[in-house]
Amino acid sequence: MDALPATDARPKIPAAFQGEAVTWVHHWTDRLFSFRCTRSGGFRFTAGQFAMIGLMAENKPLVRAYSMVSAPWEEELEFLSVKVQDGPLTSRLQHIKPGDTVLIGRKATGTLLIENLLPGRTLWLLSTGTGIAPFMSLIREPEVYDRFERVVLAHTVREEKELAYRDLISRELPAHEFLGDEVRSKLLYYPSLTRDPFPTQGRITTLIESGRVFADLGLPPLSPEADRVMLCGSEAMNADVSAMLEARGFAEGSNHEPGSYVVEKAFVTK
Ligand code: A2P
C-alpha cells in the first residue's frame, strides 16, 4: 500500500484556531519558560488581553488561556508559561522548538484593559508568577503612558531566577528607540522575592500593608482618587489584594463599567 502524503497525516486544526510557527523558546527555570510564534495578520488584540493557546494532541486541540506578553504593535506573539511535569498541556508545550506548530485561538478577550479603569494618576500593575504576562504587553503600549503620570510594575516571585523579563524591563525598555523616554520618566519596576534574600523581600500584600512599597518608590499610599490598580496573580493573591483595595474604597471595574481596579487570574497552572 502507498504511504499517505505527509500533509494528510497532519491533524486538522479546528476553525477557531490558527496554526502558528514557533520562532523562539527561552527557558527561565525548570518551572518557567517563554516562547514566541508567528502572528497571522487577522489576529488583533488589546494590551492586557488573553487568548486560548496550545497544541493539537490526539487529533484534538489542547488549549489554555494565556495572556499575550507581546505588545499589540509587535510582529510576533509571545507567551509566558509554567512547566508542570504532569500538566496535560504544559508537560507537552515545554518541549516545543522553533518550527513546531502551536494553536492560537482567533479571539482575544479579558478585563485587564486600560479602558476598564477610570482616569487616574498612577497605574499599579501588581503581579505574582506568570501574572506579569499581560503587564509586559501593557508597559509597551504607548497609550498607557498617555493616560497615566506613573506606572508601577510590581512582580513577586519565590526566587530571583523567576523574575522573568527583569532585564528587558530594567535595561532594554529604558533604552528603547520609541518607548525609552516614557519608560525612563514614568515606569517604576518593583520586584520582590519571598523565598530568597533580596533587597525587596516579601509578598506585595505585606509590602503594601507595611507601607514599605510607598516609601521605596516615593509615592503616597494607595487612594481610590489618584490610583488605579490591575491585579494578575494566583487566586489567593488576587483575593487578598482585592480585599485590601475594597477596604480602602476601591471599586472593581469590568468590560461593562470602568472602576478603580481590575483583576484577572494568572491562568495556566497545569
Ligand atoms: P510565598 O512564597 O510567600 O507563597 P507561586 O509560585 O506559589 O505561584 O507564588 C508566586 C508568588 O506569589 C510567591 O512569591 C508567593 O509567595 C506569592 N503569593 C502567594 N500567595 C499570595 C497571596 N495570597 N498574596 C500575595 N502574594 C502571594
Automatic annotation (TrEMBL):
GO molecular function, one term: nucleotide binding
Catalytic activity field: 2 reduced [2Fe-2S]-[ferredoxin] + NADP(+) + H(+) = 2 oxidized [2Fe-2S]-[ferredoxin] + NADPH
EC number: 1.18.1.2
Cofactor: FAD
Keywords for the protein's UniProt record, in alphabetical order: FAD, Flavoprotein, NADP, Nucleotide-binding, Oxidoreductase
Leader sequence segment: none
Domain of life: Bacteria
InterPro entries reported for this sequence: Cbr1-like_FAD-bd_dom, FAD-bd_FR_type, FNR_bac, FNR_nucleotide-bd, FNR_type-1, OxRdtase_FAD/NAD-bd, Riboflavin_synthase-like_b-brl
Pfam families assigned: FAD_binding_6 (PF00970), NAD_binding_1 (PF00175)
PROSITE patterns in the cross-refs: FAD_FR
BP-aspect Gene Ontology terms: cellular response to oxidative stress; heme catabolic process
Domain FAD-binding FR-type: 15-115
The keyword Flavoprotein belongs to this UniProt entry's keyword annotation: yes
Protein family membership: Belongs to the ferredoxin--NADP reductase type 1 family.
Protein name per UniProt: ferredoxin--NADP(+) reductase
Source organism of this protein record: uncultured Acetobacteraceae bacterium
